[in-house]
Each structure stands twice: as C-alpha cells, then as structure tokens.
Design brief:
With 190 residues, this protein is α/β, with parallel strands linked by helices. The chain has one domain: Rossmann fold (3-Layer(aba) Sandwich). The protein has six helices and nine strands, in the order αββααβαββββαβαβ. The protein has a five-stranded parallel sheet, with helices on both faces. Strands 1-2 form a two-stranded antiparallel ribbon. The chain has a two-stranded antiparallel ribbon with strand order 5-6. It binds guanosine-5'-monophosphate.
Length: 190
C-alpha cells in the first residue's frame, strides 16, 4: 500500500535493529484518514471472505480494527490483557509472549463475544514473530469459530511470524513488508 509506505518512510523511526516506531500515526497519535484507507485496503484484500467479526488485541490494534470495521460493517472484539472485575467470568484465555515487553501475559475474550457461528478476521498493527496473531488464532479455535484471515499493517519480513502463519495455510495480508534495517534505513520487500 503506497500511501502507507510513504508515511513509514517519512515518519517511521528505527530503534535498534528490530523495532520500527510509528508513534506519529499508528501507535500513539493516530492518523484517522490513513486508518480509513488502511481499512478500505483490508476490505479489498478480504472481499471474497465471509467476515462476521474483527478480532484484535489491545491497545494498538483497536483503532485500526474499529476503523476497518466500518468498511466490513461488523463489530470489533478486542482481547484484553488485564483480568479486571469488569470482564465476564466466562472467558477464552491464551498466553502470548510480548515481543516489545519480552514477557508472557494472558489475553482474554468473553465467551459472549465469540462463538461457533463467527467468521473472524484478525487485525493487528505489527507482525514480528507471530505470537500475538497465534494467540488470537487460539482464541478463535477455542470458540469453535472460523478464521477468515489475518490482516497486518506492517510485517517485519526478517522475523518469522509471516512464514509461520503462511505455513499454517492462513490467509495473511500485510499492507507493508519491511526488510531488516541497515544503518537505520527502512526498505520494503516487493
Ligand atoms: P509478534 O507477536 O508478532 O512477535 O509481535 C507483534 C506485536 O508486538 C504487535 O502487536 C506489536 O504491538 C508489537 N510489535 C512487534 N514489533 C514491533 C515494532 O517493530 N514496532 C512496534 N511499534 N510494535 C511492534
């Protein structure tokens, strides 16, 4: 997606060898117009698929998923990282290893909001080693729902997540695929 790539080149900042910071439009401040175009692109890429719900993970996935949901005209469910008293007792739960925080945490979705009738599109901001996506896929499986596909805004091609998901036969669509950063430079995979 050219618009996204231009934005990444203009505003993305490389941190160390593996982290791309896009706080100015995706992870802290949000560019709502860009999110709208991202949602339209996901709709185009998954137009053949039946989707009844979009599933993401808090916090960064929520804005992306909510805007994309306008194009699909379906609800969004986000997996919660904190087990608060507000959450229903009946939940699907899975463990995810956080790439950015380097620790395991549980994520939960109330059983009320995922069921075997659902066709789920998973959306997230980044794909690194695939742990977040695999965790969300596990929740979909626990619910007996159908996985329609996984949509990612930025895939880091030099990490294994993309390969892992494609090897599982998942319909994966990434809007920008970035190569390993050399000297702080960002390049894209064709
Ligand atoms: P994975 O679970 O695929 O290893 O990592 C994906 C998750 O980690 C995403 O939900 C995202 O929040 C975070 N993440 C991974 N790599 C990056 C990165 O380079 N930049 C940012 N901002 N987040 C990342």
């Amino acid at each position: 997606m050219e618009l996204l790539k231009e934005k990444i080149l203009k505003e993305g900042r490389v941190s160390g060898e593996e982290i791309l910071k896009v706080d100015s439009f995706l992870n802290h401040q949000l560019d709502a117009n860009l999110l709208y175009e991202i949602g339209a692109e996901f709709k185009r890429l998954f137009k053949e698929k039946k989707v009844t719900k979009i599933l993401t993970i808090e916090a960064s996935g929520i804005g992306i998923a909510a805007v994309a949901a306008l194009h699909f005209n379906v609800p969004v469910v986000f997996a919660k990282k904190v087990a608060s008293k507000n959450l229903d007792n009946e939940t699907y739960k899975t463990e995810v290893y956080s790439f950015t925080k380097q620790k395991n945490y549980d994520v939960r979705v109330s059983k009320r909001y995922l069921n075997e009738q659902d066709h789920i599109l998973i959306l997230d901001d980044f794909l690194a080693n695939g742990r977040a996506a695999l965790g969300l896929m596990d929740l979909v499986e626990q619910a007996g729902a159908e996985l329609a596909g996984v949509g990612i805004v930025i895939e880091k091609s030099f990490q294994e997540g993309g390969q892992v998901l494609r090897d599982k036969g998942v319909h994966l669509e990434s809007l920008a695929k970035v190569n390993r950063f050399t000297d702080g430079h960002i390049t894209f995979q064709a």
